[in-house]
Amino acid sequence: QLQLVESGGGLVRPGESLRLSCAASGFTLDYYAIGWFRQAPGKEREGVGCIGSSDGSAYYADPVKGRFTISTDNGKNTVFLQMNSLKPEDTGVYFCARGPRISRCPRYSTYYNTWGQGTQVTVSS
């Protein structure tokens, strides 16, 4: 019953924007820290950012800081990743994941126990 479903990925040109959605079912998203991660072909999964439970503190990795923003819509049980000024190095499969019930979200993937299927983001001219 526990599920996270990402959507909103696609092909965009450098400098353009995308908004990814992560719809949760089987649990109340606001109770948990939620992380966003990405993985490029042949590379390890890396953290993008996260947000703590109950409008807790947010963290963003240096490569996306100032360009990406995480937000939530509790009525829709959905978390969003707004991605602006996209660069080719942002290309990869993006995943959302459920973490612990803490307001200060952890940065590392080992703290997250439930993952979505991922959505492809390609930034290319």
Question: Describe it for me?
Answer:
With 125 residues, this protein is mainly β. The protein has strands spanning 3-7, 10-12, 18-25, 34-39, 46-51, 58-60, 68-73, 78-83, 92-98, 114-115, 119-123. Strands 2, 4, 5, 6, 9, 10 and 11 form a 7-stranded mixed β-sheet that branches. The radius of gyration is 13 Å and the shape is globular. 32% of the residues are buried.
Furnish the topology, listing elements before pairings.
Blueprint: E1 3-7, E2 10-12, E3 18-25, E4 34-39, E5 46-51, E6 58-60, E7 68-73, E8 78-83, E9 92-98, E10 114-115, E11 119-123
Parallel strand pairs: 2-11
Antiparallel strand pairs: 1-3, 3-8, 4-5, 4-9, 5-6, 7-8, 9-10, 9-11
Q: Spans of 5+ residues with little confidence (pLDDT < 50)?
A: none
Largest sheet: 7 strands, mixed
Give Rg in angstroms: 13 Å
CA(first)-CA(last) distance? 40 Å
Shape label: globular
What structural category do the secondary elements indicate?
A: mainly beta
Q: Beta-strand percentage? A: over 45%
Query: Average pLDDT value?
Result: 96
- DSSP strand count: 11
Residue share in helix: under 10%
Helical segment count? 0
- The helix/strand series, from N terminus to C terminus, equals EEEEEEEEEEE
